[in-house]
Amino acid sequence: MEKWENNRAWFLVLPVFVVVAFSAIIPLMTVVNYSIQDIFGPGNAVFVGTEWFEEMLTDSRLHDALGRQFIFSGLVLLIEIPLGILIALAMPKKGWGVSASLITLAIPLLIPWNVIGTIWIIFTRPDIGLFGVGINSLNLLDVPFDHTARPSFAWITLMAMEVWHWTPLVALLCYAGLRAIPEAYYQAAKIDGASAWSVFRYIQLPKMRGVLTIAVLLRWMDSFLIYAEPFALTGGGPGNSTTFLSIYLVKLATGQFDLGPAAAFSLIYFLIVLLFSFIFYQALLNVGKGEKIA
Amino acid sequence: MRIQKRTLGLIFYFVLLVVPIYWMLNMSLRSNADILSTFSLYPADITFENYIKIFTDESWYSGYINAMIYVTLNTLMSLAFALPAAYAFSRFKFLGDGQMFFWLLTNRMAPPAVFLLPYFQLYSTVNLIDTHIAVALAHCLFNVPLAVWILEGFMSGIPKEIDETAFIDGYSFPRFFITIFIPLIRAGVGVTAFFCFMFSWVELLFARTLTVTEAKPIVATMTRTISATGLDWGLLAANGILTIVPGALVIWFVRNHLAKGFALGRV
To answer: What is the spatial distance between Cα B142 and Cα A286, in angstroms, rounded to a whole number?
Structure first.
């Protein structure tokens, strides 16, 4: 669609700019301030330059947390995106099943994040949880299942929770994309005798590119910034095995009052998310650009 | 045959989706002593004592009211700010429009955990700590950009000729926008409101940091179930179930819009 050129459109955008700037720019400047100063109290701060940034480069616990964060977000994307597409493809296209599916899918999304953690504690506890008691009664494991006992158990519980919680969002978005495909496309494919796979590959997948971009970006950002759910479920343990970046940074900032290093790294954190979001965005925009879309 | 297998798979998935919630419901209908002493797949001895405790103690139920107030405020604010802006992005080319759009989206990417302290200081400075408006305003940080993003998609689906015809007919911009344009994208408004409600309702960090008692939401109050005698699982579960109810109601009311909105818009 050809757009009108008119700089007065800024008046329509101005309220948004003001309200978001108030909540975004002022706190961001405060964080920048922290990151280059050593703060002893109100009005008592010393300029330290890049000291905190240098300290961050040698903090091995921080590097571990960053590594865990990348593994976690990578797994999240690898599992949730294909699973979400599969669910969207299986969902009914008309009748009462549509509303029923949409409502069921939307429920996990509307549960407060720390309640999600609570649900999964109750569900997987070895003494009262259905999953915990169930898996232990099968006697498959050499030690009883308890997500506080072993890092691997904690990770499995966390991944199960994360997939349970967020795959519905991917499915909902993909479903929206699929519904936007005109029926004529399918009829044409049927006449051509196209297989189910080629219908998916050459019609459905290209048409879902827009919603998939949104899904990948949202899942990437939110999983990389995750805090409340692992905090409620494992508290970062056992040991530090599920201490993700946000959890570590909050410990630094509010637990030990190491504001400078925490602020310095949160700026780097922000830049990492930005950089990867930009890469994903560009990659998804350009992938398949060369081929002819049906 | 293939269709059936597919449907079976879907039903299996939906069962997995519901089971953890069912388990919490099961726990919420039992007393704590019962939970800890016997393992049972269903509440054999149903008791509503957990729910009664929540509904009769103001320090519990006020959490729900507080959360409802700021979530509603935030949804209304997000829509009011985002509607004109989304119109601008979908209809006009203006200086810095692309940069502005991207900047808005980047606000979803800031790690909230570390912005907590600056937030507390900022809202203390303007005397808004422990008010509903503070939380609503803070949640605008991620909801307004999202609302602009979704609404812009819906608005771009409406041909520009409609605007042109209306202006030729002598409509002023505000009158056109409110009486013609917004009704045209009402499915989009519904979907946007749903997302704003959702992200504001589920958020914990800002809501907990910016409130003390007067505006404290239930998600923050819930931590009280840990007492000297250990966790009260029944009470915790009842609280959890009650936090699902408003969301379930919202889904029920927008279910038709949601199906239509997801089908029509680019989301």
So the answer is: 27
